Amino acid sequence: MKDYNVIWIDDEWEDQIEFKEECEELNIHLRPFSYQKAGMDELDKHPYLWDAVILDGEIKDKSDNELPSTKGLLNALKHLSSMPVNKKVPYFISTGKDKVKKNEMLEDEVIYEKGDDDEKLIDVIRSTIDNIEQFKIKVLYRDAIDQLNKISPNASEVILDIFESMHYPDSHPDFNPILYYNQLRQILEYNFRAANKVCIVPDACFDDKGDPNLSQCCHYLSGNDATHAGVRYGSKEKKDRVVPLHIELMMRMVLDVGNTNSHSAKLNDNELKELEQYLNKNVFNSRYLIYSLALNVCEITLWFENYIDNHQDIEKIEKNKKMCLPLNGNEIDKQTIDEDEKEAKRLLGAINKEKSRVYSYDLSKNIIIDKKDGFKKKCSPKEYDYVENEKVYFELKEQINPNTNSPFSFAINVNPARKEKPKDINNE
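Above: the chain's sequence. Below: its structure in token form.
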């Protein structure tokens, strides 16, 4: 049976036991408030959680110390009418006082008789909500929406916006997919933070400010070396993985499309501009990519919910900690690693055919090799026979373009990783 979440503003709600029981029997969950401002504040705080509002004809306005009057009702109606279109909810007035029904300012409102019309009111509430687009989306994707709302109300709002556009495109002609790609990356961040609370994702994948490096989290969970964090997942004997392959591929798609040049969830203006240019050039006017990524995020979120639920008791948390191993077999001094990375970012990549660029696995993009300091001593193209797709280590040198005041980067100190098999960058 469907669930309906309704704000109920009535200073005498405690006396209406029968009405409340009738609502609960039909899964109409009432959240009572004794004055209108408290109810409206809750609606503003969690607009996507509530499906409707029931208002008494005379209610207190801003505090419990006031007497109930039509002023509280009129202020509530004014607030409801001023809400953005995408956050509006239906409201229903129920009263036992004739003077409310005769109020000229309420002559256009449908008013139900408290007690006599309770069954009719309940039926109207259910049928009205059932025909609201957003409520239908909530019902279709209830499991994902509920979990998204637990990890962050903003996460559920983002997914609801996308799915409303997917199912009712004619009602959302101004929907702009570009605004949502990075927000899907942020939902990954919420999942990584939830996993970090029970040590499924280690602190090493977070910076000193407590923000996760999304790429490093993904590497670690997928059983790959989180090189910047200096850790990997598995036992001392062998590597292992937390997420199955299909979840890894979904996470990588969300991260790479969201922005291939950022490890964090928050993009700066230049990164957002780069993302917009990429999407305009390669995605055209299609909405299907953002829809598919949103579905992927729902699958990822539900997978994390299930995994975390099964790995959050004390014994499992201790095991989660033990599965985080330093890459070099020694204890990792994270502060030292952070200081080293500030001085030089050592990345893993592959040489292109012309030996003028290196493809970075971590950044998922090609980096121009600096002509002067590109290759380490005795390792230039002439002194060392680099081959196409050869795996190499390199450092990322970043500067600011004085003409555009924009950051740009290029590869220096490219050094062959001779002991490892070259990786085909065409398959990345």
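The chain has three domains: 4-131, 140-326, 344-427.
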